[in-house]
Design a protein that fits this description.
The chain is α+β, with helices and mostly antiparallel strands. The protein has helices spanning about 1-20, 100-105, 130-135, 140-150, 195-210, 215-220, 225-230, 265-289, and strands spanning about 40-45, 50, 60-65, 85, 95-100, 120, 125, 155, 175, 185. The chain is elongated and about 70 Å long.
């Protein structure tokens, strides 16, 4: 009898997830994410795009207050008990909410606050499949990742630089992650990538050497992979024999003094500052946007 009740309980707990269709009702963080879903008639309810109006728009029971959610059935995402009415924040244009079980209505700041078969998704205890999609959205800052609980860092995702991977990502897309084992904010490529993909990655790294950005990526890779990449050779551990020689450097002329930047003439200084500014602008544009 105990096992029967436990089984029934697990089935009921799973209904809230089962009626959410991530294909028809994709992930969202805000209404903007739903602008291209359902002909623009969808809004972001918690973390899924759902029709803003209409009794026949989906499996969830419509409501305006909690009393509309009594005896919420499993096929409606309930557990046979009193549910709660989740209302969209824009009540001027979205006049009805959807009934959810109390476990699906619970707000959260961490995964530990939710049931074992749930994740904290956009601030609500919910479907792990939606959280999995949440981890794949692009990011720009570490704060976004930490707020959404999708990672500690906004990491460089090398997936887009390898055309051999089936992806629509750009060469320098950034997604959330916990960082590599070396503590660098990158998402490592698979260790078994082909020689052709290694060549593509090597080419990408050489393009970043002018900005000294290759070191961040190289040192974040697995060491065995770093050894295979020509662009990463300066960052591998090698043993070399050096010869020490003594040279005499003539004193600089009073009219040819160097400043702290190591430059002499005003023309050199102007060129240096121009290139430095140009590299900064290009780096910010290519890597962070």
């Amino acid at each position: 009898m105990f096992l029967l009740r436990a089984s029934i309980g697990l089935i009921i707990l799973g209904f809230g997830h089962a009626i959410r269709d991530i294909q028809k009702n994709p992930l969202c963080v805000s209404d903007e994410d739903c602008s291209r879903v359902g002909g623009g008639k969808y809004r972001c309810f918690q973390y899924m795009c759902y029709p803003a109006q209409g009794r026949n728009g989906g499996p969830f029971r419509r409501c305006t207050q909690n009393s509309d959610c009594e005896d919420l059935l499993p096929q409606e995402g309930g557990d046979g008990k009193q549910g709660e009415c989740f209302r969209h924040h824009d009540r001027r244009s979205v006049h009805e909410g959807i009934c959810l079980s109390k476990r699906e209505s619970k707000t959260c700041w961490s995964h530990q606050e939710c049931d074992p078969n749930q994740k904290c998704v956009n601030g609500y205890c919910g479907d792990p499949d939606y959280f999995e999609d949440l981890t794949k959205i692009p990011c720009k800052t570490n704060t976004v990742c930490q707020t959404l609980l999708t990672g500690e860092y906004c990491c460089i995702d090398l997936e887009g630089s390898l055309l051999g991977w089936k992806t629509s990502k750009g060469s320098w897309d950034k997604t959330c992650c916990e960082g590599s084992e070396t503590g660098h904010p990158i998402i490592r490529p698979p260790s078994n990538i082909s020689d052709a993909d290694l060549a593509k990655l090597d080419k990408t790294l050489k393009e970043t050497s002018a900005f000294n950005f290759d070191s961040i990526i190289c040192e974040g890779l697995e060491y065995s992979m770093m050894e295979k990449l020509q662009a990463c050779q300066p960052y591998t551990t090698t043993t070399t024999t050096t010869t020490t020689t003594t040279t005499t450097t003539p004193k600089p002329s009073p009219n040819n003094k160097r400043d702290s930047s190591g430059l002499t003439s005003s023309g050199e200084k102007s060129s240096y500052h121009l290139l430095s500014s140009l590299f900064t602008v290009l780096l910010s544009y290519q890597l962070f946007y």
